Amino acid sequence: MAKFRFKLEPVLKARCHVEQQRQREVAALERERQRIEDHIRSQQQFLADSKLQLRDHLFGPLATNDLRLHAASGLRIMREADRLVVELAGLHQRLSRARQSLIEATRDRRAIELLREKRFQEWKAGQEKAEAAALDELVVQRAARSDLIQESHE
Fold it and tell me: Which of 5, 19, 83, 94 could form a disulfide with 105 if both were Cys (CB 3.0 to 4.6 A apart)?
């Protein structure tokens, strides 16, 4: 039996490769987004913890050096958090573009796959038609032999 061969198989493989590359790009950006968000959360937690510690030190004599250090530390962390938020906003834009690119690559691959499926169904129908014609030919030949044999016996 003949084997199905899709002429655009190299194109399909290339499109699969492009789609996989786009998936890796989206995954890398997602990991970066997760890293930045985790860093922001840890800074928020640090600020909350340091406020609680400062609250505990507000009883009794005040250590102005500790207060100054706490305020400076809080400002530095808030500036870093602001910088990370801006970086995160830019990352979200890049992630959006990468996702759109992935959607386009998936659509391109799927179009070739649908064409492949259609061509396979056409090939399969042609094979079934050829097989049916071959069977019909065998039946006709058998019937003709059977007629010849009956005529020769008569």
Answer: 19
54-90: per-residue pLDDT in tens? 776 666 676 677 778 777 888 898 899 899 999 999 9
- Whether residue 128 is contained in a domain is answered as no
CATH of the domain at 43: 1.10.287
**Nearest of 108, 110, 106 to residue 118 by alpha carbon:** 110
Domain assignment present for 23: yes
The total domain count for the chain is 1
Are the beta carbons of 111 and 18 closer than 8 angstroms? no
- Residue type at 131? E
Give the per-residue SS3 of 38-79.
HHHHHHHHHHHHHHHHHHHHCCCCCCHHHHHHHHHHHHHHHH
Please state the pTM of the whole predicted model: 0.73
Contact 107, 62 (CB under 8 A): no
Closest to 69 (Cα-Cα) out of 81, 57, 83, 80: 57
- Amino acid code (one letter) for 33: R
List the end-to-end C-alpha distance of the chain, in Å, as a whole number.
41
Residue 99: alpha-carbon gap to chain centroid? 9
